[in-house]
Every structure is written in C-alpha cells, then in structure tokens.
Amino acid sequence: MKYDELDPEAIHVTRPGQDPRFDAEVPIAGGAMEVVAGGATAGPTRRALRRFLHEKPALVALAYILLLVVATLTFLALALLARPPLVPFDLRAAAVLLSIIVLILTVSVVALWRTTKFN
Predict the structure, then answer these.
(1) How would you label 61-90 residue by residue, b for 16+ Cβ within 10 Å and e otherwise?
(2) Beta carbons of 41 and 28 less than 8 angstroms apart
C-alpha cells in the first residue's frame, strides 16, 4: 500500500470550486516566489503546518529544531559576551592536537567501514 493511500488529506487535494484535475502538491509554474507574491495556492505549505499540529512525530521534530535553535543562539550570545582568553596560543601544540584528532577520526572511520562494509 502506498503512503498516499494512507494519507487522509490525499483525498482532498482540491477546494470547492477548483478544477478537480488540479493537484495542490504539484509546484506552480513560477516557483515559490510566485506563491509568496500571491500565486494560485499555498497548499503544500498549509498541509505541512497542519501536520505539525496533528502528528506527534512532526511535533517532536519541531520541538527538537526549536531546542537546537535556542541552544545555538545561547552559545552565540555567550560567545559574544565572553572576553578573549589571556592564555598565549601555541601553534605547534595546536597542530599536534589537530593531527591526533584527525588520526583518531581516520582510525574510527576505517574501523566502522570494516565492520559495516558500507560502500
């Protein structure tokens, strides 16, 4: 069974008075800018927003996105408020640490590839 057959809104893709051959999921010829500028329909956008309100996985995904945005903005705000560190920067030590990180990453990727055989 196709996903569209399970979607209750797939039956109602047109509004009263519209041509029944019109499919709200097909993009308008002018693209998104035509929709924003007053095009014929914004059906797919309304449908996606309704799913946020009625489907729990979509609501959870929205909550995760909002939490991520809040956390990112918090870190950026704190970074702007922080004063620069007074510790001198050693370029040689930074290069050694970077090479160790790249080595660990390479070993991990090779081990994961050997275990899973992803191509």
Answers:
(1) eeeeeeeeeeeeeeeeeeeeeeeeeeeeee
(2) yes
pLDDT digits (tens, 9 = 90+) for 48-91: 777 777 778 878 888 899 999 999 999 999 999 998 888 888 99
* CA distance linking residue 75 with residue 80, whole number of Å: 9
Tell me the pLDDT tens digit for each residue of 13-26: 555 555 555 555 45
Contact indicator for 13, 25 with CB cutoff of 8 Å: yes
117: left (phi over 0), alpha (psi -120 to 50) or beta: left
Q: Provide the 10 A C-beta neighbour count for residue 7.
A: 12
Residue 112's SS3 state is helix
